[in-house]
Amino acid sequence: MTDLLIAGGGVIGLMLARELALGGAQVTLIERGRCAQESSWAGGGIVSPLYPWRYPPAITALASWSQSSYVHLAAELQSQTDIDPELRQKGMLILAVEDEHEALAWAERYHRPLTQIAQRQIYQLEPHLQPGFETALWMPEVGSIRNPRLGQSLRAWVQAQPNIRVLEDCEVTGFLTQGQQVLGLRTTQGDWQAQRTVIAGGAWSGELLAKLDLALPVEPVKGQMMVFAAPTGLIDRVVMLNGRYLIPRNDGQILVGSTLEHVGFDKQTTQDAYDSLYASALSMLPELSQYPVVHHWAGLRPGSPSGLPFIGQVPGWAGLELNTGHFRNGLVLAPASTRLHADLLLQRRPIIDPDPYAPAGRLLAV
Fold first, then answer.
1. Exposed, middle or buried by CB within 10 Å (0-12, 13-18, 19+), for 129?
2. CATH fold of 3-49+149-217+305-365, please?
């Protein structure tokens, strides 16, 4: 019997397996497809919540810990797997913010580097932006990571560990239970038992918990994005305007995101979203009209109330744990969410207060 069984091989599942293995646990990771191929692949990779002052303090606590840890994590993964996650620490420029006062108050309260800058500074940072922006907020420590490459490096790392078993193309079909205790999972590759079972299935976590007659308020929220093949240096940092963003990559590609659509498990792209994303991109960076869109895709985020993830033991079911519901901030919050959960599972002192994320009181019987 393994110590820990994780259902879900996205960035949350992979990082949790890594944290547990580093703590000496025997881990089995089960993924219904290939690891890091759903929202972990489809997102943008900004290492900050969008408009972070608009989130509850519990999100700030996770994000602050994660942002500082990504520097070490990216370097370690590149060294150990020869796959560079491409962490870019160039800052984030947020244009035309209506609630600047709240943003500045949040920054002062949490000692986060965020300042208001004027027009001259905006165009010193990004001279190719659409003319006419008069003020912006500047967050110099915000970075971005190339999430498909982060997923590849995490997958390579966990597959190389002697105390982690990775089962891909393995779908969970049910739970192994005895009374009110979960003993493991039934899958298309047989039954797997463990002392603790963790559901980290992203947008699909609610479907798994429904097998135990539990209602988890996590639902799929579709996001569509596109990417332009642009020359290196057209912009050098994350730029945001009216909830949309541009993210430059090391090779010059510029990502544009994203939509928020409550359409169930539909991952089809649409022409309306394409047109909207394209218009948003040009409203920030008109020169993008000279370069082709090379890809347009959609992914499903695990939407949850207030974007607050569920981390910890499921009430009423011994041996069952959750780490899911990160909504738009899975990559942002993953290092802290998985380290906190590993602390709880391995009975270590937690890095931050775990109570705000506990599933107790937040799940309902079907």
1. buried
2. FAD/NAD(P)-binding domain (3.50.50)
Three-class DSSP category at 174: strand
Rounded to two decimals, what is the model's pTM?
0.96
Per-residue pLDDT tens over the stretch 149-176: 999 999 999 999 999 999 999 999 999 9
CATH 3.50.50.60 domain range(s) in the chain: 3-49+149-217+305-365
Residues contacting 217, CB < 8 A, separation 6+: 206, 304, 305, 325, 362, 363, 364
CATH code that applies to domain 92-140+220-303: 3.30.9.10
Closest to 163 (Cα-Cα) out of 6, 351, 343: 6
Terminal-to-terminal C-alpha distance of the chain: 31
Kindly list the distances between the CA atom of residue 192 and the CA atoms of 27, 130, 159, 182, 189, in Å, as whole numbers in the listed order: 11, 56, 18, 11, 9
